[in-house]
Each structure stands twice: as C-alpha cells, then as structure tokens.
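User: ok so my PI wants both of these folded by tonight, can you help

Assistant: No problem, let's get them done. Here's the first:
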Amino acid sequence: MIQPLPTSTTFLVLFLVAIFTFDSLVEMANCWNLNTSPTAIRRHRALATFSSCTATTTLLHKNIYSRRNKYSSVSLAAAAKEREGFVKVSRRFGTVADPTEEGDTDTHEYDLHYKIVRPMNLSSQMAAPLVVLHGGPGVPSDYLYPLADVVGDPTPYRSVVFYDQLGCGRSEEPTDPRCYSIALALDDLDFLLKKLNLKQFHLYGQSFGGILAYEYTKRVAEREGSRPSGNGSSAPKCLSIILSSTPTEVKMVEQDVNEILARLREEDDDESTLAERFRLECQCRIASYPEPLKAAYGHAGSVWKGTAAIPDYVAHPPTKNAKRMPSALVMRGEFDFVSSECICGWKSTLFNHKFVREKILKACSHHALLENGAAYGEIVESFCSEYD
C-alpha cells in the first residue's frame, strides 16, 4: 500500500516543480523572443552564411533557436546550454563641424551579438559568470569559445558570456570610422552588462580584450571614486579581472614583433612562409592551424582592426581618488610575442593595489588556451573561484 507523503515532503516537491516550471517558461520566453524579433530572424540568416566546418560553428548552428521548433525538447535542451541574441548599441554624431557649436545629433543603432553558455547559472551565488572580451581589435570571439568547455572542467558549471565587439563577427560593422574607439567599446560593454542584468561577474580579456577589461574596471573605479559619499554604484560588481597576453603599450609590443620578424627573415628570407613561421614560434604553436582561430580570422573586421586602430595606446594608472580596482591575474605564454617586458607594468604600477598575480604557461605562446586548454582552464577557474 502506498503511504501518503508527509506534509513537509509534499510542500518541498511542489516547490521544486514550481521552480522547474518557472525556469522552463523563462527559457521558452527567451526562445520565443529570439525567434520572433525581426533582428533575430535577419541575423539567423546571416549566421547561416558562416562556415560550418569547425566544431565551434557547428555547435552554434545546432543551438540556434529554430522558429519551426520553438517549444520542442531539443530547443529547450539547447536553451539550457546556450542562449544568444542581439542588443542595440547607439552612436551619436553631431551635424556641425565645430563641436562647440549647437547643432542636431544624428543617432544610429547597431546590433551587437552575444552568446551565453550555461545561461541557467547566470545568477548563481556559487559561481559568478565570466564575461569574455576578445582581441584584435576586430578578431571575434570564435577562438575563445573553447574557454567555456575548460573553465571548471570536467563538469563546467559557471556561465560564460561572449560577445563580438562592434565591427566584427556576428555583430554589425559600420563603415563610419567614428563608430569606433576604446571609449565607445567600453560604453558598449557597460550597456551589455546592464541589459543582461548581471549583478556581479568576473572579467576576462585576451590581448586587446585585456586592454578593454583594464580600461573598463579603471573607468568604474574612477567613476565610483568621484561620487559623493553614500551614493551607491549603478554598475554591476566586477569580482576579479584576468588579462591574458595583454600589453601595457602598443608600440612596445609592435617593436617586439618587428624584432622577431627580422630574426625570422635572417634565418630564412622566404617571405611566403614568414607568417606561418611567426605563428608557430610565438602566436600558436600547434602544427595544424586551429579551427577556432581560423573561424575568428575568417570573420574578422575590416574597418577597425589590429594595432593600427590603437597605435598610441599606453595604459595609465587610475586617478588617486579612484576606488580599489578588482584583484587581477596577468597571464602569458612562455613564447608569447607579448613579452614579459610588455606586461610588467600591470603588476608594478597600473593597478591601485598589490593584489596582482602573474602566471606563465610553459611551452605556450599567444593563444595558450588553444595550446593547453586543460591547464589554461584550471588557472582561470581557480582564480575566479577564489573571488566568488
């Protein structure tokens, strides 16, 4: 004979069912919103033009929410693993040549693509999400997608947020150069974080993405330091920051690269093999060109790209009144073209505290994530866990 459940047990079961039902409805709503918005439909067609030869892009195609299958178990399973969409970012331009004169402003809006891996854990109190900033400028997030699989491996739990900065990848690429600058990229990041309703997060930047990560946390610290006492911050809380293969000065890393190229030319003057020899020595030391990297460069931007877009960048410390910046981890590969001299400033002078660690990945170069993903993911997850 089946005994009735105790009252307390019955209440617990009903409570868990209610939570599960609510989460499922939320994911259904997200699927529906992505599928029915004109932007999502238009972008879905655009995504189909991307190469599906890589595991990364194949996974992306498999997990796009299909309008024809919006409530199926397959769609919901995909929604539990990934969620992606677009936010509108704006650019305002004056209609007069002299900015001191009064005149109308012309506002344009552009689609910024984001992708969240394990979105159900975005508000977790156990593991805050990791927000990932890609490099370039102009090299989209494809080459960093493997990070989501190695952070917390073998059972990843933490949500990971990727987005393609304006001008590359699945985001729009305005042709007007006024749409691009480090300051505007920081505005886009700020806007995205608020749109995703993040309360706290860890910030990771690779190469140029590390420059954005540093400048963002510095901006927030200076903004909070300038507020009158008692006024709370409107920005979500950044718990920690990771700078991977990020130089403190662009001219310094360009000089190092030119020296490496000169040495490689002395060793072999065959210009047709120079780029590949450079890659194998200090960019990505894997015999075959990694598919995620191939996908990223295949969809790189053409308007605002490379160090030519930021030739005079030099990192400067925050103002004296700035609030304390997040604790930091600085990483680079042993054979990285971003040399130890290029990163030493992060630890010595640029953060307004001494909680900055440095980690060198042995036998790796600029793309250490793709060369030794397990070790890389363990370092990132361990650091984030310390500050959760």
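One down. Here's the second:
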Amino acid sequence: MTLSRAPRLEREGWRLNLSETRPLLSDDRLLEYRHPAEHRMLVLALGLLAILLTAAVKFKEWDFLLAIGAIYLSMLVLSLQAATLNTLKGAEVTPTQFADVYQMVQGLRKRFNAPPTRVFVLREQSFVARPLGIRAPYVIVLPHALMDALEPQELPYELGKALGHICFGHTRMALLLGGEGSQLPAPLAWIARIRDLIFAGYWRAQVLTGDRAGVLACGGIENALRARVKLSVGSNQSREVQADDLIEQAFKLTQGTSMVGATLIHWQSSTPPFIYRLEAMVEWAGLPSAESEGGVIGHRR
C-alpha cells in the first residue's frame, strides 16, 4: 500500500476523523483499549438471548431449546479438546520448530501478560489466527496461508489479535454466545446465521478490539495496516493499493443510496467490512508516518 505523499483527508462536507496527535500506546494498558461499543453490544446480545430463551420456554419450543443446548455442549467439548485436537492435526510452535514464531509469541505473551498459550501451524486456506479455549493452556491455530501472506514484521498483528482476544476473555465469551459457525458441527452450523444476526454487533466490536491489540503488538499502525491490507486484498496486490483511492472509496460509501446499502450490509455482518475496519484502526491509532508505506481511510458520519 502506497503513501507517496500526504493523502487528501477531506472531501465535500466530509473529513477523516483523526486526532491531531498520535495516541501513546502502552502494553500495560492493553485492557483499557477494549472498543467502547463492546460492553454495550454485549448487554444487548445477552438481553436478546434472554428474551429468546424466555419466549421458547413460554411457548414450549422444546426443539429450539434442545438445539441451543446441543450447540453449547458441542462448543464446550470442542473448547476442552482444542489442544489435543490440534496436537493431532498440526505442528506445534516450539523453541526448535518454527523458532522465530515461538520467540515472537513468547515476547507478546510477556508484553500482554497473557496466560500460557500453545500455537499450532496447520495447512488451512484461512487468513486469521484463531484463538481457542476457556482455560489455560489456550490454543492459537496459525494457518499456513496466513504465514505465507505476511512478512515477519507484520505477523505480530495477527498473533497480537489472537492473544488479545484471549486476554479480553473473548474465547470464553464465544462459548456463552455459541461460537463461530465454522467451529460448529455441520448439523448445527445452519443455526449460526440466525445467531450471528442477533449477536453481530458484539462480534464486530470484538473484532475491532482485536485489531487494537494487533496494532499494539506491531508497535504502531504502519505494519498493522500493511498486514490488514494484505490479508484483505492480497500480498502482491497490496503494492497497487493507494491511500487516496481508499479514502475516495470510503467517501463514496457515505453518499446517497450507497450509504444505505453499506449500512445494511455492515449491520448484517459479524465482521466489519474492510474499509470500515481500516477506518477504525486509523481513527484509533493515527495515520502512518510520512516516511512509511501506510494507508488511511475516511470517516463515516
């Protein structure tokens, strides 16, 4: 992603929402960096869950209650078996195996005061480091495609996100809210779409909190932005991405019917779309320095 000159931050009646100075990031303050919408969305999600369960009991929808119970039981079993399952499926990161990654993980664990965590490399066409578990040792699944896509200085973004989710308690909360559809047994995965519509706001806030941990792990916004663009657009393709063009995209999403459509898509998604996600990262951590290749995006109003 190229930032060959200072990007134009303003459009017609619209401006990037940035503070004039960069925030001073500190590892000791990790838990203070939780996205402000997360607690609000959690209260809403739990309230909706309570309403659904109360209604199911009142109207004697026993099949629905059994399905919900099956989801939680399956998620509990998967969480408790995460370490054993991935020991069977992949190669563990150790001092002698993926040694550079091991040192990176241990350094981040110390910085974040994270609990014991085992990391496994698996052959998966995924670009997300997936944290699992409800108690130590936690597990992080590191897909080979993710490792191939990022440079060593960019990998802390994904590892930091995963460790951040563990530190913030998101893996335990995933059990309470039913986890992701990809983690559910196939016969139960159809329920995930309905569940995600209810809890989408909380999932989005969790993702944004994780991105903040990723920025912190990278020591700043530059490498975190490079990683995010590569994971969303492609490693080779990211060289063609221009900051000004991303700003123009974001501006167009605030105009007319595009704004309505973008808002509907956003609220149905359990993961924030690429442009909004970059926007949140830049608004929180500031712009890349002029000497670096970074990127900025605009602010939705």
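Strands lie at 10-11, 14-15, 91-92, 117-122, 130-132, 138-143. Residues 243 and 295 are 5 Å apart (CA to CA). Good luck tonight!
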